[in-house]
Every structure is written in structure tokens, then in C-alpha cells.
Amino acid sequence: MSAPSPFMQAAIDLAASVRGTTSPNPWVGAVLVRDGRIIAQGATAPYGGPHAEANALARTDARGTTLYCTLEPCVPFPGKRTPPCTETIIAAGVRRVVIALLDPHVGGKGVQRLRNAGIDVEIGDGAEAVTNLLRPYLKWRQLGIPYVIAKVAVSLDGAVGAPAAGITWLTGEAAIARAHRDRASVDAILVGSGTVLADDPALTARPNGQPAPRQPVRIVLDARGRTDPAARVFQPTAPVIVATAPGSPPTWRQALLQRGITLLELERTEGRLELRQLLQTLGQRNIQSLIVEGGPTVHASFFDADLVDELHAYVTPRLLGSVGLPLVPPQHPFPIVHLDNVEIEPLPPDVLVRGYTGSWQPPLPILTPEA
Ligand SMILES: NC(=O)c1ccc[n+]([C@@H]2O[C@H](COP(=O)([O-])OP(=O)(O)OC[C@H]3O[C@@H](n4cnc5c(N)ncnc54)[C@H](OP(=O)(O)O)[C@@H]3O)[C@@H](O)[C@H]2O)c1
């Protein structure tokens, strides 16, 4: 597929600037063009606020213009919180609308409504780029479960730390800052009890050293109730969900409930909490994207269940030798994984390697809505 036009690229950049802050709405960008020049632009506001198209249209007289938007404009439906964008576009007198991708939630009705009102509509400019940008939203809409990013810091010899040598933190400042920006753009972060016991992480998003205005939900897998209710992750700086198994200690559960923490009771398979059941429950709670930041045990379970969509490996330039804790635990099944669409980002002294696992493929863009 071809590269987006410059105007669509501007809309995509706007959408990317609000990635993950609009959930459960998709993050969308829109630019308004007159005589070959952008005269107004908008991005989706946080949930309940105006959509990208409405934000762009509110800024100028739009009569006779072309609107570039990354996703199909919304239509009226019962219980809708914001005015439908199709009606705002029609009322503003826009002449032509260029859309990168149809919204599976709108299903072509937005395009039909605009065409019925006499507006020229073109679909497909930037479709591939927008599909990739909206992978979490598209997966959640299609399957009802979150898009999963496995994040790990790993040494050149494949170790995630060397607790016996007192080495628990591997990466430098640039990598840490990058990881915090990613945390701020997802709905949830997950670790296992092993990481809480070993590292006592806060698991908050602190891009630029400051807490992000919208904190991801923190999720801890603790089947047996081994974590300390006084751990940093349980402090009330952001919502917390603890997934546990039947039979975990009632006193421990009570202590968590008193802190306002949500407890989910999950089934266990071979001693491990059922991850598919967890993801379905999270999807029902409008969690579209999840970063798994666990230790080797949790990563092995997610990969073994084929539930990882994207890997972010921060490779750090050292060998942890015979005391290194391997990313792939010898006693756990762990599949072979090839990454696609690989991007490499130098974050001196570390390197971030990112790619898609192919566990889920986004649907091919539909370019012609049904009549
Ligand atoms: N380099 C990195 O990126 C990184 C990141 C995080 C941690 N670490 C290191 O990793 C080490 C901890 O490793 P870990 O493997 O013990 O931590 P973990 O993977 O975060 O936690 C493992 C524990 O989670 C619980 N669990 C519940 N359901 C599970 C499921 N479905 N699948 C897997 N686990 C499940 C299990 O305990 P229960 O049965 O009691 O529930 C299990 O023992 C520490 O040394 C830490 O510093 C490194």
C-alpha cells in the first residue's frame, strides 16, 4: 500500500499525539484543507470530549473545504455522549472528506450518511499506517480482548537481571524515559507476584519524571496471595486490579479490598491463572491495550498462550553471565517467535527492538462500504 498523502500524514501525526489517551474511543486526527493549505486541525479529546473532526471544524469557517480524517466519522446511536461527527461535517458545509480507514464500530454508515448529503468521500489514503496506529482499538473491537505488548529489558546473553549479584535494573535513562512514555499511552500494565516481591515497583507512568495525567490500570497476578498489601504497586496513585485464585488467604484479600483494590478470581490451569479469561474480563472493562512488564514466568505464560501481539525488547550492552536470570525459564514451554515490521531505536547505551509477533493480524482495510 502507498504512503499517506502529506495532508493525511498530518492527520496521522495528530492522531499519534493522543495515542492511548482517548480510550475506549479510538485516537483520531483531522485536518481541514482549503486551497492546498491546512487551515485547522484537531485530535480526539479524552473520553467524553469532542472528537477530532469536531475539534478541527470548531476552529474555522469550513464551507467548501476538504476534511482529511484518519477514521470514519461517527454517526448517531442510542446513548452517544458526543454529537455525531457526520452531522457536524454536513452542517459545516465541508465539500469533500478523505478517510484513511472505516471504523468497524461505524461500519460504513458514516460514509453513506456523508455521501447521501452530497459530500464527495474518498477512502484508503493512509489506510496501512492508520491500521498500525490503531492496532489496539481494532483488536479490541474485533475480539473483545486487549492488545498485548510484552516489554522486557534483556542483557546480550538473554538475562533479565542478576538478583544474586544485586543487579535488578538493567537499562539507562533514555530507555527508562521511553518505557514511561509507552506506559502513559496504554490502558493497563501487568506484572506477576514475583516482580512485586523482587522489585517492589510502583508501576506508574512518569514521562519526563512527572506522573502522567491519565495513569494506566495496574494489574498484578497473584494466585496465592504472596504479595504484601503495603507494596508500592498497591498505593492509591492509580487503579489496581489483582487477579487471584480461589483459596488465596481471606485476610490478604480483605487487606487489598480495604485499599480499594479490585479483586478478580480466575481459574487456574497447571497452577497458572487463566490468561485468556483475564483478557476477556479486561476487555469487558474497556481495557484495549496492555503492557506486560513481568518477569520470565509471566512472559513465558503469555507467549506460550500465544497472547502477545508486540514485543518491546530493550537490549542492554552487558553480559550477566552465570548469575543471570534467563528471559526464557528452562522449566517453561516458550515458543519460537519471529518479529515483523521490526523497528530499532537507539537509546544509548541501550537499543530498543520492537516488532509484531503475528499472533493477531489486523483485518485488511475495507475500501468500499456496502451500499
Ligand atoms: N528485566 C526485566 O525487564 C524484568 C522485568 C520484571 C522483572 N524482572 C525480574 O524478574 C524476576 C522475577 O521473575 P518472576 O518470573 O518471578 O516474576 P513474574 O513473572 O513477574 O511473576 C511470576 C509469578 O506470577 C504468578 N502468576 C500468576 N499467574 C501466572 C501466570 N498465568 N503465568 C505466570 N505467572 C503467574 C506466579 O506466582 P503465584 O503462583 O504465587 O501467583 C508466578 O510465580 C526478578 O528478579 C525481577 O527483577 C525483570
Topology diagram in text:
Elements: H1 6-17, E1 29-34, E2 37-43, H2 52-57, E3 66-71, H3 85-92, E4 96-101, H4 109-116, E5 120-123, H5 127-133, H6 135-143, E6 147-155, H7 173-183, E7 188-192, H8 193-199, E8 217-221, E9 240-244, H9 250-258, E10 262-265, E11 268-269, E12 272-273, H10 275-284, E13 289-292, H11 296-304, E14 310-316, E15 340-347, E16 350-356
Parallel strand pairs: 3-4, 4-5, 6-13, 6-14, 7-8, 7-13, 8-9, 9-10
Antiparallel strand pairs: 1-2, 1-3, 11-12, 14-16, 15-16
Bound molecules: NADP nicotinamide-adenine-dinucleotide phosphate (NAP).
Task: Tally the beta strands.
Answer: 16
Order of helices and strands: HEEHEHEHEHHEHEHEEHEEEHEHEEE
Q: Based on the structure, what is the oligomeric state of the protein chains?
A: single chain
The overall pLDDT, averaged over residues, is: 95
- Ligand roster: NADP nicotinamide-adenine-dinucleotide phosphate
- Helicity range: 25-40%
Query: Which overall shape is indicated by the principal axes computed on the Cα atoms?
Result: elongated
Indicate the structural class. alpha/beta
Strand residue percentage: 15-25%
Q: Which fold does the CATH topology of the largest domain refer to? A: Dihydrofolate Reductase, subunit A
Give the terminus-to-terminus CA distance. 24 Å
